[in-house]
Amino acid sequence: MPALRIENLKKSYGAVPVLNGIDLTVDNGDVVAVIGRSGSGKSTMLRCINGLEPFQDGAIEVAGHVLDRSRANLRELRKEVGMVFQSYNLFPHLSVAENITLAPRVVKGVPKEQQSALVEEVLARVGLQEKRHAFPDELSGGQQQRVAIARSLAMKPKVMLFDEVTSALDPELTGEVLKTIAELAQAGMTMVLVTHEMGFARRVANRTVFMHQGRIWEEGRSEELFANPRTPELQSFVAPDLK
Amino acid sequence: MIQSFGWSSVGFLWNGLIWTVGLSLCTFVCGGIFGLIFAVGRALGPRWLQVIIAGYIQLIQATPLLILVFLAFYGLSFAGFYFPPLAAAAISLTIYSTAFLADIWRGCIEAIPATQWEAADALALSRTQRLRYVILPQAFRIALGPTVGFMVQIVKNTSVTALIGFVELTRAGQLLNNMTFQPFHVFLTVAAMYFLVCFPLSWWSERLKERKHAGAAH
Prior knowledge:
Largest sheet of chain B: none
CATH topology of the domain at 4-90 and 160-242 in chain A: Rossmann fold
CATH class of the domain at 4-90 and 160-242 in chain A: Alpha Beta
Oligomer: heterodimer
Helix content of chain B: over 70%
Shape of chain A: globular
Structural class of chain A: alpha/beta
Shape of chain B: elongated
Strand content of chain B: under 5%
Radius of gyration of chain B: 21 Å
């Protein structure tokens, strides 16, 4: 069973179509980069996968949960599908440790004595053990984003979605976040990453999907896709990056 | 019988002040409970509930408090529900402060960015959990300053209940003036006592507002 299967996904805002029939399958352990111009529907597709955006037609099956227009069982699905946002969206009134334990505690009922170890474990994976008592506004953007990744990891997700997670960071801080994501990829996490970092997509993702006008325009193994883009749209999109 | 303004007069006014503070506290607690329910309903409830609460807020905010007090005291007794002045005062002030607190707090709830809801949503928190653990604690911090500021309004507005014969600080001042004919002594003391209660609240409110700005600077 694939980790994620999207079938004929269609969505529009009023009369404006955003997604025009997306079909995508992601296997366990796959790292899929989604690239494309602004407005091509990348983020919208990603947000449909965990139900943040409703859609009009099609079906999504992720981590064994079927999501259709009824939006039933959305919470069960979200327990196993993590998401990291462009603007981090940490809870500013909670410490790093509290940000991490909130959902495991109130959603999954993880007992108090296990919470500390959980914080330790996920912060170690993002390299921020010393920040467990800090508050979000005391951290740099890159650190906040790594805490957001740790917060998502604490739910032990089967699939993780990354929505342009480095777009709000300057290049220096982008590196530390990308390194964290690359380590997750190495550890076998199934991930779908919407990104503008072409070099990163090429290096870390085993597959890349190019979206254009609400469709999957071209997809394939990352190496091949970047080396030999077939469509003129992708050629012009990646060309400046190859120089 | 004419008597002179003296320490016993101050004691008499002090008693009135106790009633003013008591009525204010009662108003704040009751108005706070209903205000919170109304604020959440107004910000997040179904459409029909939002419309009803918005209508309530508009109606009460456009009505002079004195009219509410008269309605609760004279109006309800005419309709067969007699309330003593204290109860009528508490009821009308609660109705009044509910509308204002609901409006203040609704604004604070709506000031929390949608991305906070989304982040909590993506972590599988239920709607109630999102409100309880993510939205309300943040809204509470923003709300502290304006809420304490509104307490000052409540304290001062309890004075209108003097007109239905509830002996709080202002009514006590009136009674004392009738006995002493020394209005400056009496009403300056009354004013000083209001100041004694209101100034610390105003000062605290300002400090809370400053802290909020400092905290938000990241």
